[in-house]
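hey so i finally got around to running both of the ones u sent me last week. sorry it took forever, my laptop kept dying halfway thru and i had to restart like 3 times lol. anyway pasting them below in the order u listed, first the sequence line then the structure token line for each. didnt double check formatting much so if smth looks off just lmk and ill redo it

first one:
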Amino acid sequence: MEYTGVNIELARERGKTTFNVEELTTILYDGPEKLKRRRYLENLIIKDPVLGTAKPIDVTVDRNEQYEETLRRNIYFEKLCKNAGITDLEERGLMVR
């Protein structure tokens, strides 16, 4: 399933607010530059052909298969970060939340 944006119910609730949601988001992320960076990092994952379409790891398979799939994804993630020049551990954390 491809990511298509904000959840419909979330968008509906945001529409009911009496304050500027974008302004509050900017404040929560400590300014427009940090928010812009956060969105860039999130989009690296969302638009990635492997990680952006990855389904949750199947809990019905045995532990070895779960481990192998987790390891495969982590190696891929490390390569993605390296190619994008992302070395900050805090930024990497923002990408996977």
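and the second one:
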Amino acid sequence: MTVAHQTERRLRVVCDGEQAAVLRIAIATRNNELADVPFGRTPMFAVYEVGLDASSLRELIEFAVPPHRCAADNDNPDDCEGRLDARIAALAGCQVLFARCIGEAATAAAMKAHIHPIELARNETVVALLRRCQAMLATNPPPWLRRAVGSPGAIAGARNGTELAGGVRRGADPLSVTATAVGGR
């Protein structure tokens, strides 16, 4: 028996004005306040567009809670066919994925879809992740981020020598303490 793993509900935010977004990120979350869920068990992805000065929620993608038989210790993976593909397909257009834990198969699938997975070392607030992304864009972005946004010129508008929200200064590595990039690109 194959279980269908489709998006249950997809809510999009419609805005009057457009911001200069540089990066589209997905965060595995239970409540859109805390990134605290493994990729494969998350009931929701919050999708944000992040620019140098602002970020905005663009989508909430909800899934039915996967049955226990889709757990990592499952003896019959055929029961879970399509779950991973449905989750990756739902994140089309995102360049970065944050989750509390990301398995090897999910990491490979995300990278194949040009989504850079970042496994968090501990639970993080969504606000803190958004600020870290802004700081990372405004400082010296790592090579994988420059590739993800398409070109170094996409980030060229960063202010020189300014302090960012949360007291992060240029040149700091905002993700090094709390997150680990999964795989390499």
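quick thing i noticed on the 2nd:
Residues 1-5, 74-79, 157-185 have pLDDT under 50 and may be disordered.
anyway thats it, ttyl
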